[in-house]
């Protein structure tokens, strides 16, 4: 076992070789980028970003503490506290007043868990970006067959399209940045150009004409398995895109997104975010911890992961492991949030449908069935 101290030293040394830079340099402008002046000069692909898995699906009063919620705090609180990647799922739904087609952020199905319209959520993100001009953030949306043009319409309605980062090529990732060549812009450059929002959609047929800032996730990224139900079963091997050997993933220039969250397997194949181990899952050390997983994967990939996705981001606190990897000792401008499991949030009862504008008979029936099943299990 490493001691905490040697582990930190190792992480720092690793960060140095992984980015090929001997030290983080303070920004010439004197500002803090993504909560630190030391990150301004770093290319986008050499920073590790904390990601909120299922960012809009909350386990709080608004969902009567749904056991399907993945976060205790809203997207705005997540961003305030240092989260810089927001992940969610888009589904075609309808406006509750007009009945017209409308994209929503639903968890698995809009009948079960509807976190509202994509437009409203993007507006929330945009307002935060308006008032935090030195922050670069990434959105990752799981797609269900929506075309780039329809997404672009919603991005434009929320007036967030103007922040979109447009890479030189939309169909090929650049090679990784290294000591001699930076292939992605630095955070400073992205902030100066006000192209501070990187959007990945999985999957997406890119549309350079209409939506040059909407990027297909699998062109630009690879990830390890996401469906893990045991703290000893986290791995670093590529899971998606399918059939991508590790060596190829490393050489392709795709950014590595490390999934690090646990599901709790229930009866009938139902999985809910696993609250039982989250204080260890999101911690710097311990079996199945974020810190251990980051160390293992960085060793294997020889590069710090660009993104790490966690549930209940505040617990751990997960941001600590990310700060260590980014060599940020003194973060600037974050708002405090409790690092504890939120009381009431660990309850096991079904409140998922409450936010849904239209709960179908099937949805209610299924919820009742699931509630009965869960009460039998527990
Ligand atoms: C740095 O990146 C450039 C561009 O991808 C590549 O040509 C070069 O070989 C790399 N250098 C090192 C030391 O890896
Ligand atoms: C954990 O991984 C091991 C080895 O791959 C596998 O045999 C086992 O079934 C997994 N356990 C769970 C609970 O997924
Ligand atoms: C996690 O929570 C359990 C139960 O509350 C506690 O016994 C354990 O010490 C905690 N571990 C950490 C690393 O906080
Ligand atoms: C945040 O919490 C830390 C640790 O409890 C404390 O040292 C710091 O002063 C707090 N910062 C703010 C702005 O409340």
From TrEMBL:
One of its GO terms (biological process) is lipid metabolic process. Keywords: Signal. GO terms for molecular function: phosphoric diester hydrolase activity. It comes from the Eukaryota. Coiled coil: none annotated. It holds the Pfam family PI-PLC_X. The keyword Iron does not apply. The keyword Glycoprotein does not apply. PANTHER family: PLC-LIKE PHOSPHODIESTERASE (PTHR13593:SF80), PTHR13593. This is PLC-like phosphodiesterase. The lineage of its organism: Eukaryota, Fungi, Dikarya, Ascomycota, Pezizomycotina.
